[in-house]
Design brief:
mainly alpha, 8% strand
């Protein structure tokens, strides 16, 4: 299970690569807490894409911060740019070396201040 989890992370990682020890630890924690490992590994792929939620996005009134990887193999940066354009007042940050993944440690110096600024009381 851990090997499969790691292979999946590598497939979607950007140019910064994968911290193998960190991913192995995370995969172990997921395995330990999961009652149905088959469901955990397949549920994401079972979602019906359906039509794009066009109207719902433009009705968002909360401040939005869009973090998107420049190396995303599933959704190229144009997808993040389009999302930010559709949400009124959204701020977009394209992350160098990041793929379709939770932003890895090497970009936390960009991500953490952006989130703190975004969520700070004004």
């Amino acid at each position: 299970m851990i090997r499969a989890f790691l292979a999946d992370e590598r497939r979607y990682a950007g140019g910064l690569g994968v911290d193998e020890a960190e991913v192995r630890a995370l995969a172990g924690a997921v395995f330990d807490r999961t009652r149905d490992i088959a469901a955990t590994l397949t549920n994401h792929g079972l979602l019906d894409e359906g039509p794009p939620p066009r109207g719902a996005i433009t009705s968002i009134t909360a401040p939005a911060l869009v973090l998107h990887g420049r190396d995303d193999p599933l959704f190229p940066p144009a997808h993040g740019e389009a999302l930010a354009r559709r949400i009124p007042g959204a701020r977009l940050i394209l992350l160098d070396g990041v793929g379709h993944e939770v932003p890895p440690r090497p970009v936390w110096d960009v991500v953490v201040p952006a989130i703190l600024e975004h969520t700070a009381t004004r």
